[in-house]
């Protein structure tokens, strides 16, 4: 059974404004079958993304595909097609229905989101269609007109921070700290310049790369950027074990605080990225404001001897 992968991308300059699409088709072995970049007239970013998806499905059908893997960098379009987001915008509903009808002609299909940086070939075709010379340009502007049904009000309570990716000078040196001292597990290594580590078998909680920072130095004081990465431990005893690991490795602390809601250790990794290791007290123990509205956090010294005693209990 013939399986084809379709990377699709679309963009607008003006949103709405002049729009273009880019599509790359590959066979099961990864060989490129077709590349298409073309202007589509006036459209919004999201309409252009849908048009790119439809063009990719059409081209895959012409190639005799029976199975499709669709890959794009528009989270909105991907999640609408897979059914995770409702189609709220009236201008997108006909395109969404057209995609569904087109996909019904295939034996099977899947669709997934990737960041734009990983969709570079299709993105390049969009810009080439605009510029006519391969020169990269601002192919799209943010389109807030067709966001999911839950786009207003409070953020979904289930949202959390999936992972942090750090620029480092030396990946091996960073792994010695995060894996060798703190005990994270190496999940995947990408050559000499990138690694992905986790706790408990997740695909990765921390990414480390030296793609643009190999041999570099930490940012000087007074510059913006990451203040610290906060790593939450499930229990006070687990945090005590982290303190033990640091002590045995002779790794210095830069602070230790009791915030009422949590207890935290502060330090820096080998690249001087700030790191907070902490555990949360049970919610019913959090100090609350006198009026009962809001948490009343503070910063008091943390008794390290008392913390490490958790390991003796």
Describe this protein's structure.
- Helices cover 25% and strands 28% of the residues.
- The chain has 7 helices and 14 strands.
- The chain has helices at 45-62, 75-82, 93-103, 120-131, 171-181, 236-249, 304-308, and strands spanning 3-12, 17-26, 32-43, 67-72, 108-113, 164-167, 185-190, 194-198, 206-209, 229-233, 255-258, 262-268, 274-280, 300-301.
- The strands form 3 sheets. It has a 5-stranded mixed β-sheet, sandwiched between helices.
- Helix 1 (45-62) runs parallel beside helix 3 (93-103).
Topology at a glance:
Blueprint: E1 3-12, E2 17-26, E3 32-43, H1 45-62, E4 67-72, H2 75-82, H3 93-103, E5 108-113, H4 120-131, E6 164-167, H5 171-181, E7 185-190, E8 194-198, E9 206-209, E10 229-233, H6 236-249, E11 255-258, E12 262-268, E13 274-280, E14 300-301, H7 304-308
Parallel strand pairs: 1-4, 4-5, 6-9, 10-13
Antiparallel strand pairs: 1-2, 2-3, 7-8, 8-9, 11-12, 11-14, 12-13
**Roughly how many Å is the radius of gyration?**
25 Å
From the spread of the alpha carbons, the general shape counts as elongated
Helix-strand topology string? EEEHEHHEHEHEEEEHEEEEH
Largest sheet descriptor: 5 strands, mixed
Helix content: 25-40%
What count of helical segments does DSSP give?
7
Strand content: 25-35%
Beta-strand segment tally: 14
Major β-sheet strand ordering: 3-2-1-4-5
Give the helix/strand class: alpha/beta
Distance between the termini: 61 Å
Residue-averaged pLDDT? 88
Low-confidence stretches: 133-139, 143-152
């Amino acid at each position: 059974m013939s399986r084809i992968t379709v990377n699709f991308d679309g963009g607008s300059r003006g949103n709405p404004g002049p729009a273009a699409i880019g599509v790359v088709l590959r066979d099961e072995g990864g060989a490129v079958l077709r590349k298409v970049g073309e202007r589509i007239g006036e459209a919004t970013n999201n309409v252009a993304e849908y048009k790119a998806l439809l063009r990719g499905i059409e081209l895959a059908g012409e190639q005799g595909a029976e199975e499709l893997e669709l890959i794009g960098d528009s989270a909105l379009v991907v999640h609408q097609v897979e059914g995770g987001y409702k189609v709220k915008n009236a201008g997108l509903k006909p395109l969404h229905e057209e995609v569904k009808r087109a996909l019904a002609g295939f034996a099977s299909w899947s669709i997934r989101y990737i960041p734009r940086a990983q969709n570079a070939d299709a993105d390049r075709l969009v810009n080439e269609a605009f510029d006519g010379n391969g020169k990269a340009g601002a192919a799209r502007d943010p389109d807030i007109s067709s966001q999911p049904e839950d786009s207003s009000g409070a953020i979904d309570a289930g949202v959390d921070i999936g992972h942090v990716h750090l620029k480092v000078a030396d990946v091996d040196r960073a792994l010695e700290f995060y894996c060798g001292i703190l005990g994270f597990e190496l999940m995947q290594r990408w050559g000499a310049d990138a690694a992905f580590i986790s706790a408990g078998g997740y695909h990765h909680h921390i990414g480390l790369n030296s793609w643009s920072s190999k041999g570099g130095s930490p940012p000087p004081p007074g510059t913006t950027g990451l203040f610290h990465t906060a790593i939450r431990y499930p229990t006070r005893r687990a945090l005590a074990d982290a303190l033990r690991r640091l002590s045995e490795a002779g790794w210095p602390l830069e602070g230790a605080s009791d915030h009422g809601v949590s207890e935290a250790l502060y330090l820096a990794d080998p690249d001087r990225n700030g790191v907070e290791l902490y555990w949360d007290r049970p919610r019913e123990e959090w100090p609350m404001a006198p009026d009962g509205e809001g948490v009343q956090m503070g910063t008091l010294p943390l008794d390290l001897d008392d913390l490490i005693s958790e390991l003796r209990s």
